[in-house]
Amino acid sequence: MTETTARPGAGRLGAAGAAVAGAAMATNGLAYLLPMLGARYLAVEELSVLATVLALVAIAGVAGVGLQMAVAVHRARHPGAPTHRVTLVTTAAAGGAVVVAAPLVMTALRLSSAVVALVAGTTVAVVLAGRWLGELQGEQRFLRLAWAMGAVAVGRYGGMIVALVLGADVVATLVTGMLTAYLVLPVLAWVARPTRQAAAGDDAVVATMRIRQVTSAGTAALAMLAVSYADLIFARQLLSPADSGAYAVGTVLTKGALWAPQVIVVLALPRLAVGDNRVRTVVLAIVAACGAVLVAASALAGGFAFRLVGGEDYASLGEYAPFFAATGALYALVFAAVNAKIAAGARWPSAPLWVGAGVLAVLTMAVAPRTFQGIMWCALATAAGTALVMVFNPPPASHPAADDRSSPPDRAAGLPRSAPAGPPG
Fold first, then answer.
1. Of these four, 84, 105, 205, 304, which has the most CB atoms within 10 Å of its CB?
2. By three-state DSSP, how is residue 192 classified?
């Protein structure tokens, strides 16, 4: 792989976008394949342990998502700025949280101490990876970012897939997954190696990244996860097993519409971080157009969509497909708007999402009928309200977070320094 220092042109940006989208699809594919193979190769009790561990790592790994976003914003403003200190603090906090919660997790979820230790160890590797992903994203080295995303996917899921196919039990599978997650970290460090060294007195050296930036981004990622999965949890609690299963099939369409356009957000975040406010409008327009296409497609082929996801038994629910897709499309707009707020250094960018999750809880538990349709309409209404608040409440002009001890964007933009590295050719 080679590096360039020019800003990515339209053609290179298109190729980079395709690469990042492909890497994201590969990651999601491996994430879906792992539990499918677990269902085939593991006993029921071991499959439950595997699914529980994957969920715990996903929740604890939100710290890594926050670290990636915060590092990307910081590196977009200050190419070459150090990020190792905040990475160590974030990783220690995430791993420590798992350790502190270990007694409760062992009791409530009936997991052994060895399994919980593996959760903590894997969480550390997942969070550490966020540093290098963020550095590549912030400096707009998107082709290298795609390679790094692929490496993370192989490390996080590939080792466990191979172990399952070779007949390993659940503990051996989890050990393999933890080891491969650590083995790819040197690869990430190599892929993200800097193209230039910061000199003493350089803006990159004096730009100190603070943990508050990671906390803000991580809280937003957790809020997005909570509000977009809350309806599924309420359906599980309030509906019969048959209806909750049908609702779960519908939410697959929601997640598809939510995540399909997110490569646009990944590519736009560095530009948003340096105060290019026109990008926000363009991103929201593209995400909205993508959502409209998906909603229209689900309206025309709803029965096929439900059949494809859940099988012939669910084809009759096709009339509800556009409503699930619309919920996901609206949350895609929310996700894009949240990223714009994070890039602008806004305080508490996740606040409207937490409010939305609370409103959804009140609607489903106390207002709407406890039916498949009732929960579906509550989720759609909450997504629409949250999207209106986020989209029509733009962030202020991009500025460093209060704890970012560095030059403001307007002054930093005028300092002589190399342009952000483009994707490798």
1. 105
2. coil
Q: In this model, does residue 10 exceed pLDDT 70?
A: no
Q: Which residues contact 279 (CB under 8 A, 6 or more apart)?
A: 268, 271, 272
Question: The tokens of 264 are what?
Answer: 């646009």
The token duo for 55 is 């969920």
Cβ neighbours of residue 261 closer than 8 Å, sequence gap 6 or more:
286, 287, 290, 291, 332, 336
Q: Look up residue 160 and give its amino acid.
A: M
DSSP 221: H
Q: In sequence order, what are the residues at sequence separation of 6 or more whose Cβ sits closer than 8 angstroms to the Cβ of residue 15?
A: 143, 423
Nearest to 180 by CA among 136, 115, 129: 129
Decide if 139 contacts 5 (C-beta within 8 A): no
pTM of the model: 0.78
> Which residue spans within 291-351 are E strands per DSSP?
none
Residue 332 has pLDDT above 60, yes or no: yes
Residue 172 has pLDDT above 50, yes or no: yes
Distance CA 31, CA 161 (A): 10
Please state the rounded mean pLDDT for residues 236-250: 81
Reported as a pLDDT band with limits 50, 70 and 90, residue 411 is very low
For the segment 38-95, what is each residue's pLDDT rounded down to a tens digit?
888 888 788 888 888 888 898 888 999 999 989 998 888 888 888 888 999 999 999 9
Residues composing the chain: 425
Tokens of 408: 């403001």
Tokens of 267: 């590519």
d(CA 185, CA 57): 17
- Contact at 8 Å (CB) between 303 and 231? no
Task: Give how far Cα 386 sits from Cα of 228, 316, 390, 418, Å.
Answer: 11, 30, 6, 39
| pLDDT of residue 7 exceeding 80 | no
